[in-house]
């Protein structure tokens, strides 16, 4: 067992190694919660001020085995990236590369196909309706992509998704999954965690066959703003979960 306390992050610090450890932990947590697609799906984290240099998981590495030291360091302007022996997955490069090129505010990008969120994203109406506190967190804060056309394996598709994403933090990708953009790994993880729980609650509510009791716009917006006003909870949430997985297997931080 490793030294769990050594993995605690100083939020004011931002070294590349700490960022690598955070991102590696996020992969392990995605596997822990069964959000992953084995060796598919990708997370990335900008390490340069302009967002164009970023970390990303190596091609076809299972989320449960990702380590901080093996994360790829890529630059969106490096045209030789896909011809290198350690080239990333093409869909990862096309999506994450273009998002980092176009959206410098999106420091951490998480793309997943978690079961409940993907189920909601597969509906003709994928709107996350505010029926409880978790669903209300995302009220009027989600971009929706209803034009899935196959694998995101071209720069043009990455640019299209970046335009749709705009300044939003969440995208429900119709017939596909979800995309999360945040200022840090901790915030992106927290958004992913509660998004999946929100979608689970919505699926359960739909399964009753009864009419949803949807909040009024005023209450939904108030609740969403209350979520946004708490800037400490998501940091603690991520640190707690890092300590839990570190107690089981600290190899992600190597």
Brief account:
The chain has eight helices and seven strands; from the N terminus they run αβββαβααβαββααα. With 254 residues, the protein is of the alpha+beta class.
**CATH homologous superfamily label:** Class II aldolase/adducin N-terminal domain
The secondary-structure class comes to alpha+beta
Radius of gyration, CA atoms, in whole angstroms:
18 Å
Strands side by side in the biggest sheet? 3-2-1-4-7-6-5
**Low-pLDDT stretches:** 1-6
Task: Report the order of strands and helices.
Answer: HEEEHEHHEHEEHHH
Biggest β-sheet strands, sense, barrel:
7 strands, mixed
Using the alpha-carbon principal axes, give the shape.
globular
Number of domains: 1
Level-1 CATH class name: Alpha Beta
Counted by DSSP, the helix tally is: 8
Fraction of helical residues: 40-55%
- CATH architecture level-2 label: 3-Layer(aba) Sandwich
What is the beta-strand fraction? 5-15%
Mean pLDDT rating: 93
The beta-strand count equals 7
List the helices and strands and how they pair.
Blueprint: H1 16-32, E1 42-46, E2 53-56, E3 72-75, H2 90-102, E4 108-112, H3 115-121, H4 133-136, E5 142-145, H5 155-165, E6 170-173, E7 177-182, H6 185-207, H7 217-229, H8 233-248
Parallel strand pairs: 5-6
Antiparallel strand pairs: 1-2, 1-4, 2-3, 4-7, 6-7
């Amino acid at each position: 067992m490793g030294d769990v306390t050594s993995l605690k992050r100083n939020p004011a610090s931002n070294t590349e190694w700490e960022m690598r450890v955070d991102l590696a932990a996020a992969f392990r947590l995605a596997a822990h919660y069964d959000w992953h697609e084995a060796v598919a799906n990708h997370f990335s984290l900008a390490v340069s001020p302009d967002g164009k240099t970023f970390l990303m998981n190596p091609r076809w590495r299972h989320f449960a085995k990702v380590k901080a030291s093996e994360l790829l360091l890529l630059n969106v302007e490096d045209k030789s990236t896909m011809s290198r022996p350690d080239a990333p997955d093409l869909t990862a490069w096309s999506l994450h590369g273009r998002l980092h090129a176009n959206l410098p505010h999106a420091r951490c990008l998480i793309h997943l196909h978690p079961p409940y969120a993907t189920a909601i994203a597969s509906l003709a109406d994928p709107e996350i309706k505010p029926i409880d506190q978790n669903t209300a967190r995302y009220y009027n804060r989600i971009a929706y992509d209803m034009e899935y056309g196959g694998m995101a394996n071209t720069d043009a598709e990455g640019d299209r998704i970046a335009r749709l994403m705009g300044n939003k933090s969440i995208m429900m990708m119709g017939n596909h999954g979800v995309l999360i953009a945040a200022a840090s790994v901790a915030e992106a993880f927290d958004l992913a965690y509660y998004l999946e729980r929100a979608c689970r609650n919505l699926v359960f509510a739909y399964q009753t066959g009864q009419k949803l009791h949807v909040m009024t716009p005023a209450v939904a917006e108030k609740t969403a703003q209350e979520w946004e006003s708490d800037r400490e909870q998501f940091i603690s949430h991520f640190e707690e979960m890092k300590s839990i997985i570190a107690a089981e297997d600290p190899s992600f931080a190597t």
